[in-house]
Write a structure and sequence with these properties.
1 helix, globular, two-stranded antiparallel sheet, 5 strands, mainly beta
């Protein structure tokens, strides 16, 4: 699981930002950060810790930017 750099409160907020053309980047905290992909599928969760996670999403990355959210 990964996070977006911006702390979106909902999956809807994330989808709207991507639809507007914002450059949403992702990261993976902890010891697996070096394995985080720049291209392909990534699984996201939010909002950021320590808040309880209330949404999850599958996203497609291209050059480190979210281009599609499911």
């Amino acid at each position: 699981m990964a996070y977006t750099e911006r702390d979106f409160r909902s999956k809807k907020e994330l989808k709207e930002a991507v639809a507007r053309g914002e450059q949403v980047r992702t990261y993976q905290p902890g010891p697996y950060a070096s394995n985080h992909p720049s291209n392909g599928t990534v699984y996201l969760e939010g909002p950021h810790y320590p808040k309880a996670h209330t949404w999850y999403a599958q996203a497609e990355l291209k050059d480190g930017i979210v281009i599609k959210v499911k």
